[in-house]
Amino acid sequence: MGGDRFQGEGVLAEIARELWVIVGRDVKTDWTVRDDVRAKLRSSVKRLLVKYKYPPDKQPEAIRLVIEQLESMAPRMAEDQSTTSRGRTGAWR
After folding, report:
1. In the chain, % of residues over pLDDT 70
2. Could you identify which of 24, 59, 62, 83 might form a hypothetical disulfide with 90, taking C-beta atoms 3.0 to 4.6 angstroms apart as the criterion?
């Protein structure tokens, strides 16, 4: 995300772990087409970056990158969620 020059690897790993929890909680099957869910994700990512004192001038790019990466993973996340809803263990729950 570009903040590695400002954050230690441990802090970035903690951000990634917390982001994983947020995504698992907030991402729904149709999140890519729902602006309200996308806005909630952006807000959650921003709060997480602020919590870990991520440089404010780097936050917009980091948020954009996270959302972009989530969009590229969306088909897999939807598949995992549908598997979980049928009673199997998926990656998100």
Report:
1. 68
2. 83
